[in-house]
Design brief:
Length: about 110
C-alpha cells in the first residue's frame, strides 16, 4: 500500500510524499522504494513541464494575453490530465504488486 500511496500523493503534495516514502524505505522494502522513486521522478518531470509551459505562456503574454491563455492553458491541462492517467495506472499496478514503468516522456532518466 505504501507503493500505491506514493503515486496517489503526487497530485496533492507534488514531490514531498514520494520523497518522504523513498527516504523511509531506503533500507528494505525495495518494492515500495522502486515505486516511490518512479512517483518522485514523475512528479519532478511534470513539475519541469509545468514550468516550461508557464514560461511559454509568459513569453506569449508579452504579445497577447489572449493568445497566451489560448495556448498555455490547454497545454497545461492536457499535461496534467495525462499525468493523472499515468498516476492512476501506476497506482493500480502497485496495488496488484506489479512494477509498471512510467512512460519515457514523463521520466527524467531512462
Amino acid at each position: 500500500h505504501t507503493a500505491m500511496l506514493a503515486y496517489l500523493g503526487v497530485p496533492f503534495t507534488l514531490c514531498l510524499l514520494p520523497l518522504a516514502l523513498y527516504l523511509a524505505n531506503l533500507r528494505g522494502h525495495s518494492f515500495a522504494r522502486w515505486h516511490a522513486a518512479q512517483a518522485l521522478n514523475l512528479a519532478v518531470t511534470a513539475l519541469l513541464y509545468t514550468v516550461c509551459g508557464l514560461i511559454v505562456g509568459g513569453v506569449l503574454a508579452l504579445d497577447s494575453v489572449q493568445v497566451a491563455t489560448l495556448i498555455a492553458v490547454p497545454l497545461l491541462a492536457a499535461l496534467w490530465i495525462s499525468v493523472l492517467v499515468v498516476l492512476v495506472r501506476a497506482a493500480t499496478a502497485a496495488a496488484r504488486g506489479e512494477q509498471q514503468l512510467v512512460p519515457r516522456w514523463l521520466r527524467v532518466s531512462r
